[in-house]
Amino acid sequence: MELDDLKKYWNQHPPVESAAPDPALLRKIIHNKSVGIIDRIRRSLVIEIIFCSLALVGIFIGIYYSEQILITRYLQFFQGLNIVMMGILCWILRSSKTVNPDETSVKNNLIRIHTLVSRFSRTYFIFTMALFPPIFLYSMYAGAAENNYKSLSEVMHFYLQLPPAFIAVSIGFIVLSGVLLYFFTRWYIRTLYGNYLDKLRQLIEELDFSEQ
Amino acid sequence: MEREFIQLIQQHSGIIHKVCSLYVEGKENRDDLFQEITLQAWKSYPRFQGNSLFSTWLYRVALNTAITYFKQQKRNPTHHAAEEFPELLDTDTNIKEEQFEMMYRAIAQLTEVDKALVLLYLEDFPYDEIAAMMGITANHVAVKMNRIKSKLQMLTRQML
């Protein structure tokens, strides 16, 4: 049997469809939450923007009450990072609104979804990695501050007078943590979105291949 | 608008059922995909301006949703593609039940893109409309369809 035989048969005897769904069920369905990846990303972005806004308010309060210049600088750094991150999250959220299943062809839809998901996962990765250095710097400062070293030069002096072996071990620990965080974040993002992106890429390539 | 949309979906629910039958296995998975397509259609409905038939528009939404719906499917080992269309098998005596089942099993092995092409082909869409929906040229639809036909022949032959 060939596809054309099936087509003839399909047209002569269209497959019997299930009974029209109950309007109450349809009403319930359209008020449900979508499980599609774009909607999940949109929800995630909205939650992250809300958290960033709350963190920003907290940082403002922290800066207002801060009495130590290094704490103030540290909070200001996070404030800047937070504002940049919020800007990028809003931009991705805005671009996610252009991905709609009714507006474009299958190929364009696949390309748009692929672009959005990779942009989202890349941002997630970059910001996770960007948080690593300031957190270490802060813990170093906090360690020195406990010993009543306040200014930057005092803090530097405090660390430079430590035994060289201790400094070497600390640097090794920081580098190792950084490398582990890098691989863990990469693995985590790949687990979340990697397979999905691979599958999208395959489908796009399949459509591109047919163009050759 | 909600009532109008529900009426339209009731009239055209067959389109969504056909897409679900091709893309996922088992009643539970089909129900999940049916819900997702209906929900996406509802969210997109305010943009539907009637420039095309509602059925054509719904095909586009349904295919775009189904192709990118890579949710882990709930297992249903007893599933056979031909079970999706029971009356199709019961009413015609000229074509053997086995042949239909084989053909549906072969279609189930195709990629998401090829399944979309097969569905639009079976639904008798002209090549230029299929091309517009898929985002490729009509010539390439023809090339792809030839390849799919050969592949289906090969797959059904292997099943014999």
Written overview of the protein:
- The complex is a heterodimer of chains A (212) and B (160).
- Chain A is mainly α and 212 residues long.
- Helices cover 80% and strands 0% of the residues of chain A.
- Chain A contains 7 helices and no strands.
- In chain A, helix 3 runs antiparallel to helix 4, helix 4 (69-96) packs antiparallel against helix 5 and helix 5 packs antiparallel against helix 7.
- The radius of gyration of chain A is 26 Å and the shape is elongated.
- The mean pLDDT of chain A is 83.
- Chain B has 160 residues and is mostly helical.
- Chain B has 8 helices and no strands.
- Chain B has helices at 2-23, 27-44, 54-67, 86-91, 97-108, 112-122, 127-134, 138-159.
- Chain B is globular and about 50 Å long.
- The N and C termini of chain B lie far apart (51 Å).
- Residues 77-82 of chain B have low confidence and may be disordered.
- Chains A and B meet through helix 1, helix 2, helix 5 and helix 7 of A and helix 1, helix 2, helix 3, helix 4 and helix 5 of B.
Topology:
The complex is a heterodimer of chains A (212) and B (160).
Chain A: H1 3-12, H2 23-30, H3 37-65, H4 69-96, H5 106-145, H6 152-160, H7 164-209
Helix pairs in contact in A: 3-4, 4-5, 5-7
Chain B: H1 2-23, H2 27-44, H3 54-67, H4 86-91, H5 97-108, H6 112-122, H7 127-134, H8 138-159
Round the Cα radius of gyration of chain B to an integer and report it: 16 Å
Distance between the termini of chain B: 51 Å
Order of helices and strands of chain A: HHHHHHH
What is the CA-based Rg of chain A, rounded? 26 Å
Shape of chain A: elongated
The greatest interface here is: A-B, 50 and 70 residues
Q: What is the subunit organization of this protein?
A: heterodimer
Q: Give the distance, in angstroms, between the N- and C-terminal Cα atoms of chain A.
A: 29 Å
